[in-house]
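Why do we care about 3D structure at all? Because function follows from shape, and shape follows, mostly, from sequence. That is the central idea of this module. The next example makes it concrete: a single protein chain, its amino acid sequence, and then its structure expressed as tokens.
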Amino acid sequence: MSRVTSDNTLPLTESEVKSNLEGRKETMNGVMNGADRALLTVHELAQLLNVKASWVYGKVAAGDIPHLHVGRYPRFDRDEVLAWVRGDRSA
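And the structure:
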């Protein structure tokens, strides 16, 4: 059975997402929520989750994915996104 989705992307397994999140370098030095918490951009998160940026923007607009805004730009805490991917909404 093929893992390719209708938009021709390959969905990642939870372990692949976790591995990618753990390997992600800090993207915005000085704009942190806590001492060492890196924030991801929409495009970095889309690449990490192997989805289109428009999917991420849609989740932001719907309020479905944990995010914050730096000015008008949505940013994502990797630990919160990992919890969201796992379905753990308490993080």
